[in-house]
Amino acid sequence: MARKRRGQPIHGWISVDKPEGRTSAQVTAQVRKLLDAAKAGHGGTLDPIATGVLPIALGEATKTVSYVMDGKKRYRFTVRWGEERSTDDREGEVTSQNDHRPDQEEILAVLPEFVGVIEQVPPNFSAIKVDGKRAYKLARAGEEVSIAKRQVEIAEFSLVSILDRDNAVFEVSCGKGTYIRSLARDMARRLNTVGHVAELRRTQCGPFSENVSISLESLETLVHSAPPSAYLLAVETALDDIPALALSADQADHLRHGRPVRTQDLGGHSLIDTGSLVEGDVLCAKADGQPVALARFVSGEIRAVRVLNI
Q1: Any residues with CB less than 8 A from the CB of 260 and at least 6 apart, and which?
Q2: What angle do CA 46, 51, 56 make, to 5 degrees?
Q3: What is the pLDDT of residues 195-208, one digit of tens each?
Q4: At what angle do helices 216-225 and 24-35 cross, to 10 degrees?
Q5: pLDDT digits (tens, 9 = 90+) for 271-303
Q6: Is the pTM value of this prediction over 0.85?
Q7: Which domains are assigned to the chain?
Q8: CA angle at residue 99 from 96 to 102, to 5 degrees?
Q9: Which residues are known to be catalytic?
């Protein structure tokens, strides 16, 4: 007999302002426990030293996690010049030192080289798999790690301030798979010195930003004193960039049972207003304002990709 999942059927998103020193998995587990939720997952890992926006999906919202992970990210981070470290952040051992400290003019001159589609090698201490094993596990065991270059996209890269001779603050807007630690390391080398990430904060992750994120302490208070609407965001929050399509109750029932929905009858008359949808588009099908399924427009039909049981 199948084991019944423990917890309540809670559906939606919570954007947590992750504290330093906690893993993304630990924060997700704490949120799930606080809400007694049956299912939870996060929309993009943050390093333990990092703070900031960590979107957590609950229940049926976990089916939309990939859309958040594929979305734009924005970070604010501090680079400390003069020391390269094994982890490319302040927690690693010093592996190289350099006395050169770049000035503002030098920094501004090289930033454009790191904008657009660039190549970077992820840090040895990362979750990238090498021969089926996590790179960080190999690195911790003292084994040699060789990670291939990969392409990432940097939309914006700016210098915010120079704090002192050893530290400078930057902001980056980037796409999926970008490692800020690698970016800092490579920029420092390009500036004829070495460096590592001393502070890191994510200020945006897909449609979630700092202004909708709450601390774990605030969440704990709200869970016991306020309705879910005070902290829980709708499942479709993750689908801001995806067109919505209104269906009738009968059409929605078809999708829920895995049957495609025709957009025209045999005479070519419109049954659904598809607006500007084109072949292959992904959409959020709705009925009575509630999301029914993630679907795709194919050959004149709406076909469910993931049904949302809300």
Answers
A1: 254, 301, 302, 303, 304
A2: 55
A3: 999 999 999 999 99
A4: 10
A5: 898 888 999 999 999 999 899 999 999 999 999
A6: yes
A7: 12-71+207-238 (3.30.2350.10), 73-205 (3.30.2350.10), 242-307 (2.30.130.10)
A8: 110
A9: 47
